[in-house]
Amino acid sequence: MRKPDCIKILHKKLPEDVLVVTPTGKTYMYWEATEREAQISQLNLGLCTPVGLGLALALPHRKVVVLDGDGNLLFNLASIADLAVQNPGNLVDIVFDNECYQSCDSFPSATAKGVDLEAIAKGCGIENTWTVRELKEFEQAIDRALGGDQLTFIIAKVAPGEDLVSLPRQEGRENKYRFVRYVERTENIRIINPYPRRRKKDFAPSY
Amino acid sequence: MRKESVRAIITGLKRAGINFVSMLPDSDFTDAQKAVMADKTFTCVPVSNEAIAFGVCAGAWLGGKKAALLITTDGIIASAFPLTTLNLAKNIPVLMVVPYRGSLGDGIWFVGPMALTTEPLLKDLQVAYTVINKIDQVADAIKQAQLSAEAWLRPAAVLLAGEVIFEET
Q1: CB proximity A192 to B under 8 Å
Q2: pTM of the shown model
Q3: ipTM topping 0.90
């Protein structure tokens, strides 16, 4: 199974309003190419799943999908425990496990040496934890996860090797603003407030 | 920690509009942390290390929450990475309320070095901060720090020292 093919399935299956959290590297580049607004990207080592957790807790009525990687997750492995304890039913955490640090000459990660992310997630108490190795299984897992309302942790075992992609256009802050404006618009809330000291009575309500 | 300090912290968080808190326990801060957890104003997310807490609070802010961290000076040192690659790189605000381990009056040998590292590290990481020694200044400092964090899209810290964290001064 190859990650670019999984991404195509996700693009086909995920409704546009699903909030997608991606790490740095090729995963985010593939997803950025979908040109969806509802994506917060380039969350480096260990931060992808924690950001997804905070987002899912802040917006419990929205589906949040995290596209994490084995190396990224291993950096903050304890985040699986915190995820399990909070147990947000609106979160689907997908870990693309290619058993290596792809961008670092495929240097092997701990999962190449037998570390089992499914066993860790189950041991932390995430019942809906599945390891999938074939595209058909991946597609079925996504259907189950999107159709349910329980925290789901999917380890997608993918082959090392990536497709050539165009260089990303969005700088990290631009991506953040785009995402925040999307959430503000779809939730009818204000997140960025550059003038918090101004007296409200002097201005027309914007929300 | 004195009850008056705990009350001042809760009051400050509420005046600042904070409604989401992440934390890791600290031996001299648990009274305040338990009080925050018991207060339904706040969605509380205890975590296993502070770096995770920065990620969780960033996610909460992206979802429209006003987020704060109740962490120690150790936690700031442990979180230089998310502060740099997440808060600083993406300009994501967060309020940090921190018992200042290593401030004068602290009597534990291994926190002594934090007197040397905490403030230089905050300056390097471009975290705006203030040190508060008096209980009656705590609530307002928390409110002001949040206001600036929100306007500047940067982290801001309130370091608690003196009578705020020590029983006897």
Answers
A1: yes
A2: 0.95
A3: yes
